[in-house]
Amino acid sequence: MNALAGGGTLITFPLLTAFGLPAVAANVTNTVALCPGYFGATFAQRGLLKQQAKRLWLLMPAGLLGGFGGAFLLLNSGEHLFKGLVPWLILSASLLLAVGEPLKTWLKHKSTESEANKQDKLIAILPVGLAAVYGGYFGAGLSVIVLAVLGIFYNDSLTRLNALKQAIALAANIAAAVVFLFSGQVLWGVALVMMLSALAGGAAGGKLANKVNASMLRWLVVSIGLVVATIYFIK
């Protein structure tokens, strides 16, 4: 799902809690297990990232610091508070996934209206950092938030902004994963199974890219997320 349409966390996180994992431990384990997947996506677009070296130096630290901040916030907020926020987080992530395609359409239209703006805007650091805080805290939907922020502050092609988004999301997830590694809440048996499954699923997704309707799959994930959020609200 992540390879074809995104939103894999909307499946994996509720599944972990359904098997009895505490909410914080499930989120921590999920983040650590899925972190390697961000390396592949970023590495595949390294050519586009080399063209944006100045932006990377500007925004990557914000992604790292935000990821650290979100992770520390999660570990110090406690199980009760995080569990109470879970329905809202899943609902928000589902809605973010739903607006992902309209956002890309807007960015494509925006980039053709005028020449790309190559300036490095310092003001973008704050919203990128705040988005990374969310990513370190929960993570699902982070890519959509970062892409929206980049689209607002940079008039550039969707392809270039998407590559930059991948690098920022990688920074936020690595930072959060590093914090979680020392938290004592990573369930390594589960994480290992998820890592291997994510690698296999990513490879399968790449081969199915031209055979599966990504839009239908995306709306399926959104629907599942909304149902899961509703169940959490009822609980």
Q: How would you describe this structure to a colleague?
A:
The chain is mainly α. Helix content is 79%, strand content 0%. It has helices at 9-18, 23-43, 46-50, 53-77, 79-98, 100-113, 125-137, 142-153, 158-181, 188-207, 214-234. Mean pLDDT is 81; it is low at 113-118.
Unreliable stretches (pLDDT < 50, length at least 5) are: 113-118
Q: Briefly note the structural class of the backbone.
A: mainly alpha
Order of helices and strands: HHHHHHHHHHH
Gyration radius, rounded: 17 Å
Number of helices: 11
Q: Label the overall shape.
A: globular
Instruction: Give the overall average pLDDT.
Output: 81
Distance between the termini: 27 Å
Count of distinct strands: 0
Helix share bin: over 70%
Share of residues in strands: under 5%
Task: Walk me through the topology.
Blueprint: H1 9-18, H2 23-43, H3 46-50, H4 53-77, H5 79-98, H6 100-113, H7 125-137, H8 142-153, H9 158-181, H10 188-207, H11 214-234
Helix pairs in contact: 1-2, 2-9, 2-10, 4-7, 4-9, 5-11, 6-8, 7-8, 7-9, 8-9
